[in-house]
Structure formats: structure tokens, C-alpha cells
Amino acid sequence: MKHVKPATTPFAAVRKFFADVLLWSTFAVGLATSAGGAGVVFDGTEKTVATVVGGIVALIAGSRITKKPKIKAFLGRPGTLWFLFLFNGGTAAAMYFTMDGAKGIIGAACMGLVSLGAAGGLVASRRHRAPTTEAARS
Q1: Phi and psi (nearest 5°) for 12?
Q2: Where does 33-100 have alpha helices with state H?
Q3: DSSP assignment letter at 8
């Protein structure tokens, strides 16, 4: 039996478009704020608070974005996972050796966690593919 996709109305398509624009804009603003954009507007404690809140907003919006089917499929591809693993692992090592103090350690740890997450995705996808190739050989 075929799965029939429900018909979408023009209003639903426009609503989805604006929801996607709002989600991506929220992610971009949170990322820009956490990356140092808060320093343009704020100083001192306010800058620190805005940077942390921007990071949290970007994290929440980014996690919502990754649940979308097209993004999920892209992030699950082996080529994408290899890129994330190697790039973030290299960046973590570079941050550890080039940045001083807690910023270097925290940055390296966060990039290392992303790299390890990509490595976990590679291992998991390899486990899922291995039984099917062995069964095909038999």
C-alpha cells in the first residue's frame, strides 16, 4: 500500500516557509551573538550574559534544524561525517595548542566532542551497513 502525502494548502506552504526563515534567523543571530557580536553593543557582565544566551539560543535552534528530514539525511552521509570528524578533530588540536588558558581548553573540548559525535555516527552507520553486505555475499 502506498503512502499518500496529504495535500498542502498555499497557506500551509507560506506558513512553513516563514517558520523556516524564523528558525534559521534565530540560529544565525544566536551564533553571531555568541561569536562576539555582543561585544559591539555590550560591555562587561552584559556582554558575557549576551554571549552565553546567544550560545544557548543557537544550540536550541540548531538542534531543531537538525531534526528536519533533509538536514538529517545530509548529516548522516558518510562523507559529511568524515569531514566533521577530521575538521573538528584538527580544529580541536589547533585550539588546544594555540590558545591560552581556559578558552583554549574549553574550545578544544567542545570541538573534540563534535568530532567524537561524528566518529560515533561513522561507527554506527558502519554497523548498520555491515550485516547487509555480508548477507548479500552468502
Answers
A1: -65, -40
A2: 38-41, 44-65, 69-75, 78-98
A3: P
pTM above threshold 0.85: no
The three grid cell numbers given for residue 67, joined into one nine-digit string? 531534526
| Dihedral angle computed from the Cα positions of residues 68, 71, 72 and 75, in that order, rounded to the nearest 10 degrees | -160
**CA end-to-end span of the chain:** 30
Q: 31 with 54: CB under 8 angstroms?
A: yes
Q: How is residue 51 written as a grid cell?
A: 554571549
Mean per-residue pLDDT over the chain, rounded? 84
Question: What residues contact residue 98 under an 8 Å CB cut-off, 6+ apart?
Answer: 104
Hey, is 7 helix, strand or coil?
A: coil
33: helix, strand or coil: helix
Cell of 74: 545530509
pLDDT < 70: residue spans in the chain: 1-8, 129-138
Q: Please count the other Cβ atoms lying within 10 Å of the Cβ belonging to residue 85.
A: 19
Q: Which residue has the cell 578558552?
A: 103
